[in-house]
């Protein structure tokens, strides 16, 4: 409802103790009255002298507020004249602000955002981090001092560096060398794109290659971040069952547009895809209709034999994307991942990368290049490999000792987590709920199934947890079961 001249000052409440100055308070409250239509278009405001005297503030305070509102286009003010309201506000709320979560009109989300909301990702863990949350390396063991020195040097030298390109050459070269010698990835530096995460790589691939209705195969159970990225882009997902050799080839299903897989340590089971199976998938991609996305999120951590070379290195036809992340090998909050793209797609992906703004800060890229080139990355990996190996064995022993009759542990040859299956007839979601209340965090295996879950079990992280934490968590689990 419009307000009279005399009530304008009554509607304004200035707090002298407020950290916000009087001018800012007055400007914001007048702006609110205009935006809500209580001071309508064409309304002449009181003179600065009158409003100042009604409010008990200096005339300058009111003049500065009027000037600010004039600069923002809310009022027209000229010397010697009282300001006039210039916009048509809307009668909405008394405070003039739109309440959180509200907006005018109907929310019409894009198909992409609608599908994102249907996906069970990002995973929701409630509350603080607890043992044995899966998916993490031990950030407490990360050499923060060394990393800080690399960051500092990179920031100090920023002045001497040229701006751009978005994918820093030094890091691309350091990664090319690291991936060739340690993971048998075959690529030139130009094929490497530096991204804020592995998830960014999946989103980029989906946006670049997937049209609504395209068939995409994912492992079942599998990594929900990948399923979400492809589902949101309109793909029709098929969950492919696993056997002892990992994801199975399904010639009867025709040729999909894309296959997503985690051959080094299948997520979540940790199974290693056999060479025979890798060769079959590569052969299936050869006619040129199917792309393969190899997600090597924790391939650095292999304990029982030499790490198995990446599938990408066996591909002679440019059909494999190799995705990696530093969120397991370094810290989960480092927010750096990468994509080794087939050469034919590099320029398209680089354009898409910039459109989507999936760019990692260049001083962090430079710092990481130094961290790798100076040997700190490999030294950290060597140390973590020993530590995580011992923790995996410790968790397996503890589970067998305390819960051997109830859980069937699948010992992965590497990685950062393992699956312990529940006896037939027991459901995992209720167990996960009970455990989290008791202080042990796990993920239900059934929640990682694409369709109707076939198996129930617990996904347990071991890499991030010290042996005494693992022992305590397993004792708690035993008391809950
Ligand atoms: C299979 C798999 N791929 C990718 C990622 C995510 O990596 P980033 O944090 O770099 O997106 C995870 C994280 O848990 C994962 O389990």
TrEMBL record:
SUPFAM superfamilies: PLP-dependent transferases, Winged helix' DNA-binding domain
Ranges that cross the membrane: none
Domain of life the protein comes from: Bacteria
Alphabetical list of CDD domains matching this protein: AAT_like, WHTH_GntR
Chain ranges of the HTH gntR-type domain: 20-88
Key word DNA-binding present: yes
Alphabetized GO MF terms: transaminase activity
Native organism: Bradyrhizobium yuanmingense
PROSITE patterns according to UniProt: HTH_GNTR (PS50949)
Annotated keywords: Aminotransferase, DNA-binding, Pyridoxal phosphate, Transcription, Transcription regulation, Transferase
A matching Pfam family: Aminotran_1_2
Lineage: Bacteria, Pseudomonadati, Pseudomonadota, Alphaproteobacteria, Hyphomicrobiales
Family per record: In the C-terminal section; belongs to the class-I pyridoxal-phosphate-dependent aminotransferase family.
Name of protein: GntR family transcriptional regulator/MocR family aminotransferase
InterPro entries hit by this protein: Aminotransferase_I/II_large, HTH_trans_reg/aminotransferase, PyrdxlP-dep_Trfase, PyrdxlP-dep_Trfase_major, Tscrpt_reg_HTH_GntR, WH-like_DNA-bd_sf, WH_DNA-bd_sf
